[in-house]
Predict the structure of YicC family protein.
Amino acid sequence: MTGYGKATITLVDKKINVEIKSLNSKALDLSTRIAPAYREKEMEIRNEIAKSLERGKVDFSLWIDKSDADVVTPINAAVVEGYYRQIRQLSDALEIPMPNDWFKILLRMPDVMSKMETQELSEEEWAEAHKAVQEAIQHLVDFRKQEGSALEKKFREKIANIRSLLESVSPHEAERIEKIKTRIMDALEKTASVDFDKNRLEQELIYYIEKLDINEEKQRLANHLTYFINTMEEGSGQGKKLGFIAQEMGREINTLGSKSNNAEMQKIVVQMKDELEQIKEQVLNVM
């Protein structure tokens, strides 16, 4: 879900800049900073973003760089003229001498130096600004797609690694059962004074071995691995689902570890956990 996009449109007297970036988030969390002249279009901009971005903490900025002539604070000529007339009238009425330095006095009067009122946004200007908004969003989407392709490759690699590790469990599994059985029989034979029922012993061994059986866990984990790949191939909007599948994979791997009772199998389980942890870290970047 991480991404970045920027676009700039140059007009006669100004430059319109649009920037949008996103980070991981379970839902669409959108914050905006928009130049005053474009505030009336905020809802339209939000809808435009929501159509393209389903999830992520998104920061959107739209600002204007004006030409140097527009940056200079203008002199309000109408106000200056009004003060000039009033001063002349007072001078005549009260017989007070006219000032020698008109500009020094007039430029100190209130509201002479004032910012120009915000101009109304024209349809033509908004059409150009809207293009910049769409372009920035598209750049972010393209960025996300590139990240997505890299993630897909990484996920396939990690899933293949876990599958290969799962297959390597089988030889140790058969060896483990035989070792457990031999160890119990040897211990009983060394205890000459103990008389035991061989039929009952066989039943207990079967029960014990069944408790250590991991065929179901192996099958479920294999199914989760396949389900993860199939879900990933369904398209966008599967991030939460992939996260849930990864959790289920973790449960099966943990059960394999608790039932392993074998040093080599435990090493394999640790390797599977390491591969899965890398999947869990990166699945947060999936929409």
